[in-house]
TrEMBL record:
This is Ribbon-helix-helix protein, CopG family. It comes from the Bacteria. One of its GO terms (biological process) is regulation of DNA-templated transcription. InterPro entries: Ribbon_hlx_hlx.
Length: 69
């Protein structure tokens, strides 16, 4: 997979916050933003997969039968 340049115009205050969050993790702002976007994309796909599974199998959270001991 190749890479492409994405240019953003953001508020100085937001950039300062991004720098602080990135520094806490020992990352560059660019790496922090990319990882955040990847994580958010994963979260959305995971949520969609769970919803599709619940549609297919039904929401089993309330219907789990505990084992007899």
């Amino acid at each position: 997979m190749g890479s492409t340049v994405l240019s953003l115009r953001i508020d100085g205050e937001l950039l300062d916050r991004l720098r602080q969050h990135a520094a806490k993790r020992g990352m560059s702002v660019q790496d922090y933003v990319v990882r955040t976007l990847i994580r958010d994309d994963f979260d959305e796909r995971f949520t969609a997969a769970v919803e599709e599974t619940e549609k297919f199998y039904g929401d089993a959270r309330g219907s789990v039968t505990p084992p007899i001991t």
